[in-house]
Amino acid sequence: MKCQKLFHKIGTTGWAHLLICSECRKHRRADQAIEAAAARLRATGILPASSTLVEAMLSSGSDLAGAAPVRKPFLALGTASAGAVCIFVLAVCVRQSHRPSVASKAAAKFVNHEVVPPPNIIRNSGIRASSRRRRLRGWSLLPGPFKPTANAIYDSEFLNPGRDGSAIAIGSSSHASTTAPIAMMDDFVVPAPVSLAVNDNALTVEEMSDEATKRYAQEAKVVDTRLFRNVNLALKHASFAKVCQELERQTGVQMTAGRNIVDGNGTLFVTVRPAREVMREISRVFGVVWELTGHDGAYSYRLTQEISAQVAEEKLRNDDVSKSLEALSKAMTSPKPNVTGVGFRTSAGDVRQGPGVDVGQATFRNLSLEELDILRSGRKLTLGSPGLPAADSRVHLDGELDPDLATQLLRSGGTRLEDGHWAAFGDTSFSGLTTYDQLPGSGAGVTLQLRVSEFGGVELNADVLIAARAPDGSLLHAGGPTSLGDVPGPAEDPLDNARDNAKEKTTPGFSDLVQLTPKPTTPLRDQGIDPGPIPPGSMLQFQGTYRTFPSLQPPRPFMTSDDFWQAVHETTKRDVVADSFSRLFPLKRYSGSLFEVLSKGCDAMHYHWKLDERFLTGRSEAYQWQRLNEVPTRYLEQWQAKRKVQGWLPLEGVLAMAMMDDRQLDAVEVGRTIANQWDLPEWGIPSRPHKPKLMEMVRPICRFLANLPLPLLNEAVEGTLTVGEVPTDLAAMIPMVLKYVPNSARLRVDYVPPGQYYWSPVFIHGKEPIRDDLIFGPTGEAVMEEVRRRYPDRTKEETSLSDGLMALLRSGVGPSAYLPSEDMGDARFSVKEPR
Predict the structure, then answer these.
(1) Is 630 left (phi over 0), alpha (psi -120 to 50) or beta?
(2) What is the pLDDT, as a whole number, of residue 831?
(3) What is the distance between the alpha carbons of residues 107 and 11, in angstroms, rounded to a whole number?
(4) Phi, psi (5° rounding) for residue 436?
(5) Contact between 103 and 22 (Cβ < 8 Å)
(6) CA 574/CA 374 separation, integer angstroms
(7) How do residues 581-618 score in pLDDT, each as one tens digit?
(8) How far is CA 691 from the centre of its chain?
(9) Is it the case that residue 270 has pLDDT exceeding 90?
(10) pTM of the model
(11) 72, 45 Cβ separation under 8 angstroms
């Protein structure tokens, strides 16, 4: 009875002891059964109202013959006494058959813990604060009956439910949401991995392994009562590092985020919930685990994603790409393929689609597995006829092009003598042509490149190349880029949350009428306006673009998914755990039942919602892709702070942006969010999603500058850096700029921040000196005032508005050159030949 008496002495912390002691839980069930019988005895007057059958047994252990005076007729007395004796005998048998085990001694460690049970546990337990001997009359985490398990379930199982396959399944209608009461389990923590120092002593290694195995097993059986402390969270687009910091602040338990998950983002709105429940839900929604380290009373937790979860996400991405490639192949073979190509202008002046599309599509449909793997890896795949490298030594083939396709390309155009030189034509409608297949040493090829979109769709492009030697021995080139088609990713397919969550329609509270009015994080006054069309010939069409290109504008007014979930929490008072990504959605107001509002809102945002253990959870349909596209919030905060100092981002900030991954820079939705919500239009300088050819120029230049040692970068800013000073490995990053350039040529960085006006003159080659001064300012008038101060002969207004200009100007390349800048980034000025 020692353990049982101890259980009653510890009062409000007795519920914590029940978590690990299966014997006391059996006694608790016996007590409840006896107490129910005692209530019937009190109704007949056999047992005093102020006493309980359990107390009588604990105090004397005697029978009930003299426990209370007889106050009813003889018949009632006999019947009740007989029932009491039977219950007493039953109680003694139950208690003798369930003696407390040694494990019950663990209750002693809870005596000194001042742990306050969660309010929902107190509410369901029937505990009176004024009672001297507090008892638990059935307790549970959730409303409803509690069914205790036969054995204790520890933190390792509670905090990480997904490791045994029971993680919440979001996005699949075959998995129902979890709303039934769950037992008090600790299945959300895993012990930290064991590291062994391997040496030549096999015995030592074996002993260390045995010791580590025992420690691992011991740490797996941990119940940390500190995690029962209630927390309140209001976190929007917060990194997991901040989530852990906030949980640590409110619980006093050390929590950190592992390096593979530290920059992940989540949105959590929680009111008075035990930390362990929040940690468990984080594990279930995001597919992560909490690793346990330390010792009893001083455990710490680290949030991380296991390799198995990362492999599962990679499999989802591979499956999406495979589905997109299959859809693209079907689109190519349809009667009306949804593809557009760059055509050729005929002699009549009209433009018709050239053979590049047909050849490119036929080449793609007949790729080998090895060649398809090259495409899927992001590399360019070049297939050509054997004569192509001989005609143009710069071409390197990955394989041979089908001879019939090569012949088709060579016969698609030709050459003829014009003004004393042989000109190349991409169409046979011109008269007097000699087709390329008739020229000796001619060759043709196709370069394919597959671009995977930010949501798993694919875009296939081809670059047709025809090379031949003219009759005078000069090299002829023909062909050009063409698009072979694109398809959206499966992750962008329409959702039907009402169908997937049909069983929740009758859940209490989901039929309540609500009006949801999200409040955007970016105030409406700061969301800007949609720009007008860009004037023809404007320099803006070659620059940053997120503020000027109509196709790259966000839906105004806009909101984020975090704004939606915040409105859900504030309107319904329900706890929310959802992932968070950089994407802007049209600002909408929703009204109707809670079920309808959640379903319509999440369908519009491509989110799946679920009700899981009284949490409303949200997961993006494309989360496996968006995780790759996200830019760490800590970087955005740093860039934003630097920009506020002088009104634009310094050069080093732009170069840091360029060092982000290509997927991050190519993600249009991420770019819209960074430029409009974070107010960082400089992101468009290395991004350029609408201009892939310019993107390939500006981005390498930025990365080249970012990798320069600081002294050389300072020289480049001042315009004194010579090509000979550039390390060979860095020069290889921009061969289009430094190839065939003498070592004495100088390089200078031309950077004009967005929103600034700059001097953009037009010079006539050979008739006037070419000035390469970089002059910019807040207004066009200020710029021209400085220009006229330096060069009084410049009387015209020659200013342009920058949306993020970046160029690497080179000078002194030779006596016949005139400072070519257009092929080295954004053209700040132009040079024309005299008429």
Answers:
(1) beta
(2) 78
(3) 12
(4) -65, -30
(5) yes
(6) 49
(7) 999 999 999 999 999 999 999 999 999 999 999 999 99
(8) 25
(9) yes
(10) 0.74
(11) yes
